[in-house]
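Quiz preparation item.
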């Protein structure tokens, strides 16, 4: 009996038993700490991936492959093991992925649920932990004044012009979405060649007495103007009230080189100028090409000033046509693009309130400049080096072509006139001077807070590409497009960047 009593009073085995039993909750806590830490890491990555997916969806809310792009952005951030599986970051399995779009509020909602296999906790019957993220990105349209400055020179004829129209149209559609107008959004379209068309109805912008109607023969001044190159006014946003324009005129060269009509730029009886209000078809315009004549030779369509209606902007883009002769003076297109959004021109384009001030809250000013070539005077040789065509259908050329610097008429006149005031008036010196003026103009525009995007299309000249790269607000805002697909991609990327987004929780 005493031996039994001693055995019952012995506590040494109980301590060991209690110690063993206490390990179970400690292991459970340690396992929970490990797995919960992994769950926290998973949730953080899931938040990043869903945010990126929702923002990408809002950016492309109007595109047909929107949902595909949403999933692509999600998996790019959630790093799945391989395409086609649902297992991603740290072995988590995506068990639910839902996309919903509210067209009214222009919001994209992405909801994702992921299961994380446990390590220690599975020993205690908990096989998985779950993380869920539900985020919405709403496409917010900040107020913007956007100038599309587009090269419509003769080299853009054919497929290039079609691609440009399609690309600019897509940019506009992405920015507007399904809306005809958006509060505080305006777009201008500025076509340029070797000159820019301010519009026939703006003759009051011309210097007094400078428009000689009789000089245009049986037609009229279409609206193109000479560069205001005196004192480098072609590098400023000076309005016509400060520095008026001179009307562009390509004078006849009859008898200039020899007394036959083969040297004639135009005659009153054979003017082939298209109607600017009713642009010809691409085929008609392209067939005309360098054979066009007239006092407005090389003059493209008029500027469309800041406009709120999407349909009006799209109609203007649809009517763009390649315009031959003269050359390319992108600096003048850039200058007039700036003029459409510079507050110094407020009230001059037709609206008493536009363009707005640079520091207007929640407003951005954006200029997109596109070209397919170098700044240059075009020196056309009549289509056949060394000879003119027959007199009856002859385009402007000399009896025997001579490369003497007297190139086509541009907004700076003929190169031989040396309106740039060059000490050595060569083609290379003229190009360098135009590029220098354009570079300084880019600097002035950016100094006023305008966001500058630049695009070169099918341009191989490294000097030109560097000029446009340096002109852009930052290097990432310059796009070199070696082909039509790249040109479309450039406009699409710019449109996406212009769609200002804000995450809504």
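Solution:
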């Amino acid at each position: 009996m005493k031996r039994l009593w001693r055995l019952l009073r012995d506590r040494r085995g109980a301590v060991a038993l209690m110690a063993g039993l206490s390990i179970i909750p400690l292991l459970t806590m340690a396992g929970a700490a490990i797995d919960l830490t992994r769950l926290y890491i998973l949730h953080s990555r899931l938040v990043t991936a869903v945010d990126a997916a929702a923002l990408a969806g809002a950016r492309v809310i109007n595109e047909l492959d929107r949902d595909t792009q949403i999933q692509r952005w999600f998996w790019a951030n959630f790093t799945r093991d391989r395409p086609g599986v649902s297992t991603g970051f740290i072995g988590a399995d995506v068990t639910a992925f839902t996309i919903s779009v509210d067209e009214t509020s222009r919001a994209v909602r992405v909801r994702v649920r992921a299961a994380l296999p446990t390590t220690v906790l599975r020993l205690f019957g908990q096989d998985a932990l779950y993380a869920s993220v539900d985020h919405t990105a709403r496409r917010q349209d900040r107020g913007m004044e956007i100038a599309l400055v587009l090269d419509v020179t003769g080299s853009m004829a054919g497929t290039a012009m079609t691609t440009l129209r399609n690309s600019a149209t897509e940019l506009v559609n992405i920015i507007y979405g399904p809306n005809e107008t958006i509060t505080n959004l305006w777009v201008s379209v500025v076509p340029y060649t070797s000159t820019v068309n301010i519009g026939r109805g703006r003759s009051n912008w011309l210097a007094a007495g400078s428009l000689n109607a009789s000089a245009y023969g049986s037609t009229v001044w279409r609206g193109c103007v000479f560069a205001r190159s005196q004192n480098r006014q072609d590098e400023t946003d000076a309005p016509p009230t400060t520095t008026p324009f001179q009307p562009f005129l390509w004078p006849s060269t009859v008898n200039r080189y020899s007394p036959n009509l083969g040297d004639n730029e135009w005659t009153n009886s054979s003017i082939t100028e298209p109607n600017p209000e009713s642009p010809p078809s691409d085929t008609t315009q392209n067939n005309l090409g360098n054979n066009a004549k007239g006092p407005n030779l090389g003059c493209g369509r008029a500027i469309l000033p800041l406009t709120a209606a999407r349909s009006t902007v799209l109609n203007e883009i649809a009517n763009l046509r390649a315009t031959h002769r003269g050359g390319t003076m992108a600096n003048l297109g850039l200058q007039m693009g700036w003029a459409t959004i510079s507050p110094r021109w407020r009230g001059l384009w037709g609206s008493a309130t536009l363009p707005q001030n640079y520091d207007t809250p929640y407003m951005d000013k954006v200029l997109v400049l596109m070209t397919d070539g170098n700044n240059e005077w075009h020196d056309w040789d009549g289509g056949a080096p060394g000879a003119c065509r027959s007199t009856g259908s002859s385009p402007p050329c000399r009896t025997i072509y001579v490369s003497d610097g007297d190139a086509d008429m541009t907004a700076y006149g003929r190169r031989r006139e040396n309106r740039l005031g060059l000490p050595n008036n060569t083609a290379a010196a003229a190009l360098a001077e135009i590029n220098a003026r354009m570079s300084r103009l880019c600097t002035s525009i950016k100094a006023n807070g305008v966001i500058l995007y630049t695009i070169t299309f099918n341009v191989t000249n490294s000097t030109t590409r560097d000029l446009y790269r340096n002109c852009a607000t930052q290097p990432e805002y310059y796009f070199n497009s070696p082909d039509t697909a790249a040109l479309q991609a450039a406009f699409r990327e710019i449109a996406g960047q212009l769609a200002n987004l804000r995450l809504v929780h």
